[in-house]
Amino acid sequence: MTIIDATTAAAPVPAQTHRPTYQSTYQTRVADYWNAEENPVNLELGKIDDLYHHHYGVGDVDWSVLDDEPGGSPARRRDRVTAELHRLEQAQAELLASHLGPLSPTDRVFDAGCGRGGGSVVAHLRYGCHADGVTISRKQADFAGEQARRRGIDDKVRYHHRNMLDTGFPSGAYTASWNNESTMYVELDLLFAEHARLLRRGGRYVTITGCYNDTYGRASREVSLINAHYICDIHPRSEYFRAMARNRLVPVHVQDLTAATIPYWQLRKQAEHLVTGIEDTFLGAYGNGSFQYLLIVADRV
Ligand code: GPP
Ligand code: MG
């Protein structure tokens, strides 16, 4: 039987710098989100030391930032809360970077879904390595590139407006690669196939991600609200390990960071100058056991 559906138009194929690649309507909507995104919780934190992150924080909160200091002003209190949230996000980036190594300055790393670029800068400052960051947002790639130029590290840290599933980078050229809270925008089999292609044998892959908990059942209401908020599709924990096993990535370290990230959300909820409205949903998702914040480290075999 032949089914002809005249209402379904062929998807447009926009140009990319390395070569034409397919971009779905969904991917275009995701790019639209990040091209328009200017949340103070990202820009105000990044401004502190020009490390712009698009992920959450880990570690214990210094709750004294909420105290009224003698002679302190509301503005001073806001600055202290902003700095504390940034410290926790920076600790998350350092935790991820610590699992990439050891690396030498001649090594090359791949940052899949690099946002405004903070993670690649953290890896470069730590190891002196070359870094290639990839984002589907033209605006983020330009912003991150400008940051690298200002730091004078643009000879080693480069950002590209490309699809992380289809980078066009050379096979086996990377010693380490990662996704920091960007896996929920893509199919894991396609993603891990690209990481496995780019990593040399014995290379290291790291992800920190929010996943839904298989023991809860399916995606909870809170997980669905997070999906709607960011236009993403949070995977179950099990899917990571299945997809890694199918793509030559063998887990060597798995850490549940849920307890370590809850304090970040408790503080962020009280940062009235920075909240985006998703804070209670994250706390609810972690609280009812439907959602987990996970670190997975894997070797490319
Ligand atoms: C962090 O980005 C969030 C994502 C990249 C998507 C969803 C992540 C999950 C773990 C589910 P951000 O820093 O831009 O978010 P926000 O503006 O809320 O700080
Ligand atoms: Mg943020």
Automatic annotation (TrEMBL):
Keywords: Methyltransferase, Transferase
Span of the signal peptide: none
Gene Ontology biological process terms, A to Z: methylation
Domain of life: Bacteria
Boundaries of every Methyltransferase type domain copy: 111-206
InterPro entries: Erg6_SMT_methyltransf, GPPMT_Stmyces, Methyltransf_11, SAM-dependent_MTases_sf
One MF term in the entry's GO annotations: S-adenosyl-L-methionine binding
NCBIfam families found in the cross-reference section: GPPMT_Stmyces
Name under which the protein is recorded: Methyltransferase domain-containing protein
